[in-house]
Specification:
The chain is an alpha/beta fold and 426 residues long. It has 21 helices and 13 strands. The strands form three sheets. A six-stranded mixed beta sheet has the order 1-6-5-2-3-4, sandwiched between helices. Strands 9-13-12-10-11 form a five-stranded mixed beta sheet. β5, α11 and β6 form a beta-alpha-beta unit. α13 runs parallel beside α15. The longest helix has 18 residues. The N and C termini lie far apart (61 Å).
C-alpha cells in the first residue's frame, strides 16, 4: 500500500515537500508527529494526526509519536492569538503519561521492524543549558528566517497580544526535535497539521544547515465543518478521547449527528474502511438518506476503535432510549454518567429519600413537580400516558428500591417524548 496514494484519496494531504513521495517509495521510512501535552487526554482534533501515523505504519513505515514534554513547557504559537498558560512539571508529567497511554491504543508497538515508538523531547532537553542551545543550535537559523513565518508575522503585526521570546523560540526548539530524531532515530519525515508547516520546514532547514542532511515534510488540511463551525467542538467544549471527559455516548452522538457532507469527509479521514467499502456505504446512503447509513457506519467505526465494542453497544442502546425503542432493563444498564448525558437538558426535580419511601403514583408526579396537581396526575394515569423507567403505571403504583437507578434517579415520562428526571437525595 502506497502511503501518499492512500492519503490523497482520503483527502489528507495539504502540503508536501518535493521529493517526499520518492523518498517514501524507496522502502521503509521513519517518520514522526508531535503531540502537545496540554491536557491528560487528546481530543478528536488530535485524531487526525493519530490516523496519519496509523496509515503510515499500515503502509510499512515506522511511526514515532513524540510527546512534547519540553515544548509543552513553552507553548506553540501556531494558530494562537495569545500566549497560553505554561504548565508546571507535575501537571506536564501527568499529561504526558495520559497522552502516551492513548497513543498506545492505536499504534502497534510490537510488530517487528516497523514497530511504533514513543519519544519525549524532555529526554534530550532536560540537561541542555540555554547557552549550549543558543551556541550550537540558535546560530543555524536566522531571525529573518523565523520572522518570515506566518504564525510569527500574524502575532507581531497586531493579531492578539504580541509574542513573547518564549513563544518565538518554539519553532527553533521544534526544529531541534526533528534534527535530534533525524540524527539518532533516522527519522526522514515530520508530519502534522497544515498550521505546523512553518515549524516543520524550519526543522528540515535546521537539518540541512547544521548537518548537511536531507529531511522531508507533509501536512494535512485543518478539518472544518461544512456549516463553518469548529470541528471537534460542542456546546460543552472539546470532544475528548478519554471517556471520563467525554462519555462514549456523547462521543458516538458527535459522529452520528454529522451532516451528510461532513460524514462523507470524516469517514475517509477517521476510519480504516477501504475506498470500495466507503463508496458502497455512500451509495446505500444516497438511496435512503433518512436512514443515516453513512453516519451510523462512521460513528460505529470510530467509537469501537477509540473506546470498545461494548461502549459502542451501550451508546447505541442509550441513543435508542430517547426514541422509545428501549426497555426498563436497557435503561438500568446505563452508568450514571451515560444516564445524565442521555437526558441532558431534560427538566429535573428532587425529593428526599424519606419522601420516596413507599410513595404512590399521584404523589411522585406532583411532589417531583413533573405535573402541577393531583387532578392532572390522576387524569394522566387514567389516560395510561405515564411511565416510570419506561414501564407504564397506573394509580396503584408504589415506588420501590428496584425502581431507583444508580441509587438516585427515576425516569418519569408522559407520552412518547415528555421526559422528566427525578433525583432522590439522602
Amino acid at each position: 500500500m502506497n502511503f501518499v496514494d492512500e492519503m490523497k484519496w482520503r483527502g489528507m494531504i495539504h502540503d508536501m515537500m518535493p521529493g517526499t513521495e520518492e523518498m517514501l517509495n524507496e522502502g521503509m521510512a521513519t517518520g514522526y508527529i508531535g503531540f502537545d501535552p496540554t491536557a491528560d487526554s487528546l481530543h478528536i482534533g488530535s485524531l487526525v494526526q493519530i490516523m496519519i501515523l496509523v496509515h503510515f505504519q499500515r503502509c510499512g513505515h515506522k511511526p514515532i509519536a513524540l510527546v512534547g514534554g519540553a515544548t509543552g513547557m513553552v507553548g506553540d504559537p501556531s494558530g494562537k492569538s495569545k500566549e497560553r498558560n505554561l504548565l508546571d512539571e507535575d501537571t506536564l508529567n501527568k499529561n504526558v503519561a495520559g497522552v502516551k497511554a492513548q497513543l498506545e491504543q492505536f499504534l502497534d508497538f510490537n510488530c517487528g521492524e516497523n514497530s511504533a515508538e514513543m519519544a519525549n523531547n524532555y529526554d534530550w532537553f532536560q540537561n541542555m543549558s540555554f547557552l549550549e542551545f543558543i551556541r550550537d543550535s540558535g546560530k543555524h537559523i536566522t531571525v529573518n528566517y523565523m520572522m518570515a513565518k506566518d504564525s510569527v508575522k500574524r502575532r507581531i503585526n497586531g493579531e492578539g497580544e504580541g509574542m513573547s521570546f518564549t513563544e518565538f523560540t518554539y519553532q527553533l526548539v521544534q526544529g531541534y526535535d526533528f534534527y535530534h530524531l533525524w540524527k539518532h532515530k533516522n527519522v526522514k519525515i515530520q508530519m502534522g497539521g497544515s498550521d505546523q508547516w512553518g515549524n516543520i520546514v524550519t526543522g528540515t532547514e535546521f537539518i540541512r544547515r547544521k548537518a548537511g542532511g536531507e529531511a522531508f515534510a507533509l501536512t494535512t488540511p485543518l478539518i472544518k465543518k461544512a456549516d463553518g463551525t469548529k470541528f471537534g467542538k460542542t456546546e460543552g467544549g472539546n470532544v475528548w478521547l478519554d471517556k471520563n471527559r467525554t462519555s462514549p455516548y456523547k462521543f458516538y452522538q458527535y459522529w452520528l449527528n454529522a451532516s451528510d457532507e461532513d460524514a462523507a469527509n470524516y469517514i475517509r479521514i477517521f476510519t480504516l474502511l477501504t475506498k470500495d467499502e466507503i463508496e458502497a456505504i455512500e451509495k446505500e446512503h444516497a438511496e435512503a438518506p433518512h436512514l443515516r447509513v453513512l453516519q451510523k457506519a462512521l460513528a460505529k467505526d470510530v467509537t469501537v476503535r477509540v473506546h470498545s465494542e461494548e461502549d459502542y453497544n451501550t451508546a447505541v442502546k442509550a441513543s435508542e432510549i430517547l426514541f422509545g425503542k428501549s426497555t426498563s432493563e436497557d435503561l438500568k444498564t446505563l452508568s450514571e454518567n451515560d444516564f445524565l448525558d442521555v437526558f441532558e437538558g431534560v427538566p429535573q426535580g428532587v425529593i428526599s429519600s424519606d419522601e420516596a419511601k413507599g410513595i404512590g403514583a399521584v404523589d411522585i408526579l406532583v411532589k417531583s413537580e413533573f405535573l402541577k396537581s393531583n387532578g392532572e396526575a390522576r387524569r394522566a394515569l387514567k389516560e395510561n400516558s405515564i411511565s416510570i423507567n419506561k414501564n407504564k403505571i397506573n394509580e396503584d403504583f408504589v415506588l420501590s428500591d428496584d425502581d431507583i437507578m444508580n441509587d438516585k434517579y427515576v425516569l418519569l415520562q408522559r407520552g412518547k417524548k415528555n421526559y422528566f428526571v427525578l433525583k432522590i437525595e439522602a
